[in-house]
Amino acid sequence: MDSPDIIHMTAITWECPDFSDGGGGTMTFIQVIDCRTHQAEEVDRLMDDWVRATQGKRTATHSVVARDRSDPDHVVEIVEFPSYEEAMRNSHLPETDRIFHRLVKACDQEPTFTDLEVSRDEQLNAGVARTFIEEVINGRNLDVADGLCTDDYREHDPSLSSYEVRLAQAKEENQEILEAFQPVLVIEDLFAEGDRVCARLSYTGRHSGAYRGLEPTGKKITGTGHATFRFEDGKIAESWWNTDDLGLLRQVGAVGF
């Protein structure tokens, strides 16, 4: 445990994108390359060369080059793959072998490799977005949003009375939508990066209540949409919603084209 390389490894925080459909994230494989070099800029250029040379061939999905704040000669490369098998395919590319030999020459000593099988991949903001969709919308419990959203939360949705509304107004207007159409959302994809979470959604429901003067038809509805959430300190500060409103109006007979 007194190896410097081991100490550096434990200091790395790696956030893998979450491509789950509402359950746990997809488990991946990560390779950490630990280098000591006086040519940090050359190591960075080598990564650019490798990305260009392996276009259409590589199996890596995410790469990071990082420098130690307390030791500028210590450089760490982190590369993510869908699986160990995909990483092995990548390592056998002639372009990978060529860039690796150039990397060795740029380093002061032989780089070390750490292979990590990801056992837990959890995007915390994505979990909050999933809770919002499942409990606030599908669970019809709009008050749950009070604990999930910031005090100055803003919602952007062209189907509401204004493109930007605060939380209290958003709850009031969305209550009417939920009661009128009884939608149940399915998370088809959930992507997280930085302070943003994006959800690709589908929904089913039934026009069972009045909506802006449109009397209930009892017709079944289906549709798709996207939602993007912006987070501050683990809470939703802003959201953008886009759904196929025209398709919904066609299904209930409000428009004939």
Quick recap of the structure?
This protein is an alpha+beta fold.
Describe the protein.
This protein has helices at 4-10, 40-53, 84-91, 94-106, 124-138, 145-148, 167-181, 245-251, and strands at residues 29-36, 62-68, 71-81, 112-117, 149-156, 164-166, 184-193, 196-206, 220-232, 235-243. By secondary structure, it is an alpha+beta fold. The chain has two domains: 29-117, Alpha-Beta Plaits (2-Layer Sandwich), CATH 3.30.70; 124-252, Roll (Nuclear Transport Factor 2, Chain: A), CATH 3.10.450.50. Strands 6-5-10-9-8-7 form a six-stranded mixed beta sheet. The chain has a four-stranded antiparallel beta sheet with strand order 2-3-1-4. The longest helix is centred in the middle third of the chain and has 15 residues, at 124-138. The protein is elongated, with a radius of gyration of 24 Å. The model is unreliable at 1-25 (pLDDT under 50).
Keywords:
257 residues; alpha+beta; Alpha-Beta Plaits; Nuclear Transport Factor 2, Chain: A; 2 domains; 6-stranded mixed β-sheet; 4-stranded antiparallel β-sheet; 8 helices; 10 strands; disordered N terminus
Along the chain, the helix and strand elements come as HEHEEHHEHHEEHEEEEH
Uncertain segments: 1-25
Tell me about the biggest sheet? Answer: 6 strands, mixed
Structure classification: alpha+beta
| Helix content estimate | 25-40%
Radius of gyration: 24 Å
Remind me, CATH topology of the largest domain?
A: Nuclear Transport Factor 2, Chain: A
What is the overall pLDDT average?
87
CATH hierarchy, class of the largest domain: Alpha Beta
Shape: elongated
Number of helices: 8
How many strands in all?
10
Strand order of the main beta sheet, please? Answer: 6-5-10-9-8-7
